[in-house]
Amino acid sequence: MYREKIDAYFEANAGRMTDAVRRLIRIKSVREEPLIGMPFGEGVSKALGEALKIASELEFSPVNLDNYVGFTDINDKETELCVIAHLDTVPEGCGWTKPPFEGIVEEGKIYGRGAQDDKGPAMAALFAMAAAREIEPALSKNARLVFGTSEETGGEDLRYYFKHEKKAPMTFTPDADFPVINIEKGRWAPAFGASWEESAALPRIVSLRGGDTVNLVPHESTAVVEGLDMEVLEEFADMIAEYTGAEFEFEEDGDLIKIRAKGRNAHAAEPQNGNNALTAMLFLLSHLVFAKSEGFSMICTLNSLFPHGDFLGKELGIAMRDELSGELTLNLSQMDYNLTGFSARFDCRFPLCGTRESVAEAAKKALEEKGIGITGTDELIEPHHTPEDSNFVKTLLRAYEDYTGNKGRCSATGGGTYVHGIDGAVAFGCSMPGVDNRMHGADEFAVIDDLITSAKIFTQVILEICR
Q1: In the chain, how many domains are there?
Q2: Ordered DSSP codes for 187-230
Q3: Under 8 Å CB-to-CB from 37, ≥6 apart: which residues?
């Protein structure tokens, strides 16, 4: 009943919405050290301020909750629907062919870090709020849009928000894929490590480092070795490169050789879509001839526990799957190795059938048997599941089908979305089926027509739930 009015609104405002997305992309909103009044750093706070400014320009009255989150309401009635989006992003990483913080538009796409995750969807939701308010000014219930600022770095923003505001009966986040994601795998991302006495015997591994953040497949790692012959190293690395698909570069400095491995970024929930430069480096180092030492023995052990190409945790002894949510995935995300020890983190996403005993305790046992201990956080996040037969989910799927012509269905994801753990909540958009928006990778982009379609879908949902 609203289709013509919704189409007309976005025909008139598509350019304005596109400009709003570009304004946000131009702000680098990667978490930094906190400043006074800026809990996640200056860039993230600037992005929040800009989003609230855009909301004000659309004649909303947004609220800034101490720079942790911002929110805006469609009216002053009881809130029935909450949409939660985020403005922070992962670091830009390497490999871009477009500027990551300019919001360049080419061939119907907006390029930039955050274009699809999650600044574009956030603006689609905001303009949907404006459209719904214009089309039906007398809605009997409220819809609220929340702008978060630490989705990529632990979710402190929403924890702060829910200390001050109550949960809505219905919640979705446009932080994933269409149609509806109603199952999110659990997550365990522990810190672990070991220490030993330094060995001066040559040749030896002096250092190894890789990984910028725990929820990314490392695209680069660097090692320094001492006492190896460069010619032999290069020849052997060529064979390893062919096997792993990673590239290796070398730089000689006296008796030291710096080795750089280059792979490919991907989200840690989908490690099969990347090429892990850290596990590729472990594979190379463990197959070279170094003097016997505890350090080299540990490199070989780590290679056996996290072999290149094992995305399922088979060698760690935690592989599992179920029919609803699929297979467990495992990504070795970060490592810092020196002459007397190492520290590292991996990122495990496990299905509904997983438990603390079958995931965390089983992995800890396998590590402890090799002299490796958990050194930091041991938090395990349980899987999230909202039944697909709820009236809320049916409303979302119906709107999706109406505006895309595609069959609506529910699915599971390994990526923890913004509503993980919120009762009855789901992820809904904005990536369309079959489109790889390169989220967390180089040249991330949003398809403008897809963002507009998403905004139309969201408008329909708001009107149906709040009228």
Answers
A1: 2
A2: EE--EEEEE------SSEEEEEEE-S-TTB--SEEEEEEES--H
A3: 45, 66, 67
The DSSP bridge pattern shows strands 445-447 and 109-111 to be: antiparallel
Distance CA 54, CA 241 (A): 48
Is 379 marked active-site? no
Q: Which of 323, 351, 381 is the last residue of a domain?
A: 381
Q: pLDDT digits over 202-221, tens only? A: 999 999 999 988 989 999 99
Report phi then psi at 82, rounded to 5: -125, 130
Same domain, 193 and 178: no
Is 443 marked active-site? no
Show the low-confidence residues of the chain (pLDDT under 50).
none
Question: 281 and 150 in one domain?
Answer: no
Task: Considering the candidates 73, 117, 118, 151, report the single residue annotated as catalytic.
Answer: 151
Residue ending a domain, choose from 347, 381, 415: 381
pLDDT tens digits, one per residue of 392-436: 999 999 999 999 999 999 999 887 788 988 999 999 999 999 999
pLDDT for 117 equals 95
β-pairing verdict for 373-374 and 191-195:
antiparallel
Q: Of 88, 152, 175, 270, which residue is the catalytic one?
A: 88
Do residues 174 and 28 share a domain?
yes
State the CATH number of the domain containing residue 152.
3.40.630.10
Expressed as residue numbers, the domain containing 70 is 3-184+384-466
